[in-house]
């Protein structure tokens, strides 16, 4: 049998890859949408990377994307004003008051409220919803249990004292703003008791059912959630307030930013939520597209583990804070998606400091390192998620730190992987972010509060994860939660931030700016400061 | 069945485990009747199948457990208090020893319970029933394009070796091998969707049909056709055509190269010379004689390409926002959602086993020699 070569030699004379890349660049440059395929007039279509959603149960939902769906589809007693988040506004409650000892809160519901199912809503539903969240005890339950609610006492502490009257008892006399702010969170959403209990299996309080179903009263109701595919919302005609202008709101899962951009330019979607700074810059000249942005409650930082003997030196911590080129990062890597911010309290929360003393100063850093006995620098590792802009920032930091002799080795990883390591306190440095769980300054006390710095500690706040023992700051943070005078409370947070800025093992980098691009015919779209305050029911087009 | 006395033990250990499976067939006593032989080969097939699945599951399971990701963290998130984390760990059985976890998983699988995905809150098989049709639809159209064009092109290139078609096939193949599919997909979208408006954009169907077209089978083309919604059918097709062509192109690149080399091999055989001497038409020689022989190895190439497409192309699915199996498995893996990963692996494994079996059967159809012993 004659044999012939199976794979004849391939010519290797030139790389077609280069050629193609050139052609592609030319194609992108000359790109302009040819025709427009508009979305239906009564339907709002949003492209969104929403693979973080794991549940549609307000008692469990704690992810960013799920939070937004909850904010649009479930009502709660109070909300805050999106334009001025320090102001509380009525949602289901028509009035609210606190007793003189500061421990009993009374809420009066609006009359004639109805769920989307048609069932009437009473104070009993609210009490049930709070009790249910405490009983199923999922991730966000602590927002309620931090007021002393337990599985055993919740029925006693939160109860309907009249058809429309609810009382809520706390274990201590907390700052009322703190209590109210927490009640705006998703976990305090009101669910339809009758409907949920009719779906109960083995005493699970409807948990298995509500994961993928809906039992709320909000302006939009959930029609369908297909994981990693679509979230379909529809107008709730039983809603007590102004009805949604859109009949349908459709979120489509589009992970890839460039795909989102193409669809937006083409008019197949109305809003693109996850565009990159490059995409946003390219869209700036497009007349049929506009952008909107809002500072979010999320701050990005680098944590320095105090178990590392070098990082435990105060001079080294300060030196590293002088080795970040904040200006360059702000102008390029986080343009349109972040603003430089150097303290742990995001702008928009009570008492947030806007002071920015740090800038890139290699000489100052060198002097500090010499003082710490490290004139020739030292070596470090940093754990980093391989996503932008975190990756770019870490690489920039690596470059600038090198100029003072600090050799940083980058350890890239997946988000869940780096987080697992961070929570085990085996990192040197870790670049990450922290988002507000509810709209109150106490949510970020995690940066300074560390009641138990031992390896076996139950709670793992950020201060603990970096092994930063903070007896004084912990006391201050505990006191601030109980301070009933809002002015004094603000002052306390300002003091904590001044201390933090100087001594903390955290290099605060920036506060997230969420930017969306939308078709110019879409109006009244405003991104809220938290994930649950971006209201699609207000949008018109 | 009695132990085979003829088996040379020393030899078997020397040639290793791979040879072990082949030994019984090779030294089979000639007296065995056909029926027994069938039963025996069927039995060994089942045993191999069982071991393959077990191995597949074991490897995936243990890789999943040694990944430096805490699966509990993926479920409850970063903010959950310690007692919630501990409870979920217990609920998932993660506090038990590894072998026990694996045993529990296996016994559940044996009862047809593949567990629940923590990411989607659905039973894993329900998720796969939802995502797999999207991938099948894409892969099938892809392989139809790939094989339908790739085989004739390869034949042509072999016949006119060194000619224009041969050069074109070579360049196509080169680009197919070297250009990242991710990039090509995006460029395809820019050109055919955004600029020319010939095809639908990312996603399986336009928003307008999202509410009117109810998925029954999950194959949207079939669903639309069954409901008689021909406008929806056209829309689904317009969304399908670009990613399918892209996948088709990549398999075309491979299939045409392989066809070409198989055909060159066949055309150099003596029977081709004999056929020409007998005065058969060139068309008949190429398509009826040479290609028929080249089809035997080609079937495996096509079947494996198809299996590769059915695995789900993560990059294509990402660019085209296609809710398919590849994306599902990858996403689950990144979140240490092991039930979903294991379920997906089983399905992909079954696809490979099934298609291998199918190509074995096709061998027998195409090549009479494999039928007669």
Q: At the fourth CATH level, what is the homologous superfamily of the largest domain in chain A? A: Dipeptide-binding Protein, Domain 3
Q: What CATH architecture of the largest domain in chain B would you give?
A: Orthogonal Bundle
Q: What is the helical fraction of chain A, as a range of percent? A: 25-40%
- Series of H and E elements of chain B: HHHHHHHHHHHHHHHHH
Uncertain spans of chain B:
1-28
What kind of sheet is the major sheet of chain A? 11 strands, mixed
CATH topology of the largest domain in chain A: Dipeptide-binding Protein, domain 3
Instruction: Estimate what percentage of residues of chain B fall within beta strands.
Output: under 5%
Describe this structure in words.
The complex is a heterodimer of chains A (541) and B (373). Chain A is an alpha+beta fold. Chain A has two domains: 46-242 and 520-538, D-Maltodextrin-Binding Protein, domain 2; 295-514, Dipeptide-binding Protein, Domain 3 (Dipeptide-binding Protein, domain 3). Helices cover 30% and strands 20% of the residues of chain A. Chain A has 18 helices and 17 strands. Chain A has helices at 16-29, 64-73, 123-136, 142-145, 154-157, 176-183, 193-198, 207-210, 257-266, 277-283, 314-321, 326-333, 362-371, 390-402, 415-423, 462-465, 471-482, 486-503, and strands spanning 43-48, 78-80, 88-90, 93-98, 104-109, 158-162, 165-169, 220-226, 230-235, 248-253, 271-272, 289-304, 338-340, 379-385, 407-413, 429-435, 506-519. In chain A, strands 1, 8, 9, 10, 11, 12, 13, 14, 15, 16 and 17 form an eleven-stranded mixed sheet that branches. Chain A has a four-stranded antiparallel sheet with strand order 4-5-7-6. Chain A has a two-stranded antiparallel sheet with strand order 2-3. In chain A, strand 8 and strand 9 (230-235) form a beta hairpin. The longest helix of chain A has 18 residues, at 486-503. Chain A is globular. Chain B has 373 residues and is mostly helical. Chain B has helices spanning 9-15, 17-26, 34-66, 71-76, 82-91, 98-110, 124-159, 164-178, 181-195, 207-210, 220-226, 230-267, 270-278, 282-310, 314-319, 325-334, 338-366. The radius of gyration of chain B is 25 Å and the shape is globular. The interface between A and B is large, with 74 and 69 residues.
């Amino acid at each position: 049998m004659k044999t012939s070569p199976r794979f004849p030699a391939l010519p290797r004379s030139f790389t077609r890859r280069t050629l193609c890349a050139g052609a592609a660049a030319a194609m992108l440059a000359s790109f302009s949408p040819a025709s427009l395929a508009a979305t239906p007039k009564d339907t709002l279509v949003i492209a969104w990377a929403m693979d973080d959603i794991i549940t549609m149960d307000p008692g469990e939902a704690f992810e960013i994307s799920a939070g937004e769906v909850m904010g649009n589809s479930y009502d709660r007693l109070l909300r805050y004003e999106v334009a001025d988040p320090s102001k509380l506004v009525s949602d289901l409650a028509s009035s609210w008051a606190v007793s003189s000892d500061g421990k009993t809160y009374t809420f009066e519901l609006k009359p004639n409220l109805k769920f989307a199912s048609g069932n009437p809503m009473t104070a009993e539903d609210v009490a049930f919803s709070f009790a249910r969240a405490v009983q199923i005890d999922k991730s966000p339950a602590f927002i309620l249990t931090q007021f002393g609610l337990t599985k055993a006492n919740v029925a006693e502490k939160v109860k309907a004292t009249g058809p429309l009257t609810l009382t809520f008892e706390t274990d201590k006399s907390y700052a009322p703003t703190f209590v109210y702010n927490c009640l705006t969170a998703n976990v305090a959403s009101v669910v339809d008791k009758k409907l949920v209990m009719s779906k109960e299996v083995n005493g699970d309080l409807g948990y298995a059912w509500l994961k993928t179903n809906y039992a709320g009263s909000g302006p939009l109701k959930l029609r369908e959630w297909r994981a990693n595919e679509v979230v379909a919302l529809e107008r709730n005609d039983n809603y007590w307030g102004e009805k949604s202008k859109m009949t349908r709101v459709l979120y489509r899962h589009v992970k890839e930013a460039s795909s989102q951009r193409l669809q937006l330019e083409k008019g197949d979607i109305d809003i693109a939520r996850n565009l990159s700074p490059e995409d946003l810059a390219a869209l700036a000249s497009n007349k049929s597209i506009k952008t909107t942005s809002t500072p979010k409650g999320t701050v990005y930082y680098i944590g320095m583990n105090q178990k590392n003997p070098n990082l435990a030196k105060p001079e080294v911590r300060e030196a590293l804070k002088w080795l970040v080129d904040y200006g360059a990062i702000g102008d390029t890597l986080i343009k349109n998606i972040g603003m430089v911010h150097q303290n742990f309290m995001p702008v928009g929360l009570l008492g947030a400091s806007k002071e920015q003393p740090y800038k890139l100063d290699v000489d100052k850093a060198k002097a500090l390192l010499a003082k710490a006995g490290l004139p020739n620098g030292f070596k470090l590792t940093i754990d980093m998620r391989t996503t932008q802009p975190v990756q770019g920032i870490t690489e920039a930091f690596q470059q600038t730190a090198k100029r003072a002799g600090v050799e940083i080795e980058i350890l890239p990883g997946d988000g869940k992987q780096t987080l697992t390591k961070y929570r085990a306190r085996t990192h040197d440095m870790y670049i990450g972010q922290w988002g507000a769980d509810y709209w109150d300054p106490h949510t970020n006390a995690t940066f300074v509060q560390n009641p138990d710095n031992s390896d076996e500690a139950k709670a793992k706040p950020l201060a603990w994860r970096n092994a930063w023992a903070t007896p004084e700051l912990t006391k201050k943070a505990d006191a601030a939660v109980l301070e009933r005078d809002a002015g004094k409370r603000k002052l306390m947070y300002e003091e904590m931030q001044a201390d933090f800025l100087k001594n903390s093992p955290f290099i605060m980098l920036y506060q997230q700016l969420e930017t969306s691009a939308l078709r110019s015919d879409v109006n009244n779209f405003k991104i809220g400061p938290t994930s649950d305050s971006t209201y699609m029911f207000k949008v018109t087009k | 069945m009695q132990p085979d006395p003829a088996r040379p033990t020393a030899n078997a250990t020397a040639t290793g485990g791979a040879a072990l499976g082949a030994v019984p067939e090779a030294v089979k006593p000639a007296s065995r009747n056909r029926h027994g032989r069938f039963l025996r080969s069927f039995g060994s097939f089942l045993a191999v199948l069982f071991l393959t699945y077990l191995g597949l599951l074991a490897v995936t399971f243990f890789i999943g457990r040694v990944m430096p990701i805490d699966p509990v963290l993926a479920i409850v998130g970063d903010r959950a208090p310690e007692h919630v984390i501990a409870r979920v760990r217990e609920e998932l059985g993660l506090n038990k020893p590894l072998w026990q976890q694996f045993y529990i998983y296996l016994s559940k699988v044996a009862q047809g319970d593949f567990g629940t995905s923590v990411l989607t809150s659905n039973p894993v098989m329900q998720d796969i029933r939802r995502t797999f049709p999207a991938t099948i639809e894409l892969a099938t159209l892809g392989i139809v394009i790939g094989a339908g064009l790739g085989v004739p092109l390869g034949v042509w290139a072999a016949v006119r070796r060194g000619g224009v078609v041969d050069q074109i096939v070579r360049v196509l193949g080169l680009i197919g091998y070297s250009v990242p599919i991710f990039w090509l997909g995006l460029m395809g979208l820019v050109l055919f969707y955004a600029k020319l408006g010939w095809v639908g954009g990312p996603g399986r169907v336009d928003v307008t049909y999202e509410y009117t077209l109810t998925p029954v089978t999950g194959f949207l083309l079939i669903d639309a056709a069954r409901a008689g919604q021909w406008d929806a059918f056209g829309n689904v097709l317009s969304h399908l055509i670009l990613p399918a062509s892209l996948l088709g192109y990549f398999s075309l690149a491979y299939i045409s190269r392989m066809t070409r080399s198989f055909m060159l091999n066949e055309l150099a055989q003596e029977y081709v010379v004999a056929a020409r001497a007998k005065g058969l038409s060139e068309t008949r020689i190429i398509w009826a004689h040479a290609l028929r022989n080249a089809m035997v190895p080609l079937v495996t190439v096509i079947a494996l390409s198809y299996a590769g497409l059915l695995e789900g192309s993560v990059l294509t699915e990402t660019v085209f926002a296609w809710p398919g199996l590849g994306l599902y498995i990858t996403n689950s893996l990144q979140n240490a959602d092991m039930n979903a990963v294991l379920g997906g692996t089983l399905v992909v494994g079954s696809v490979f086993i099934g298609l291998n079996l199918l190509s074995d059967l096709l061998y027998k159809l195409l090549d009479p020699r494999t039928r007669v012993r």
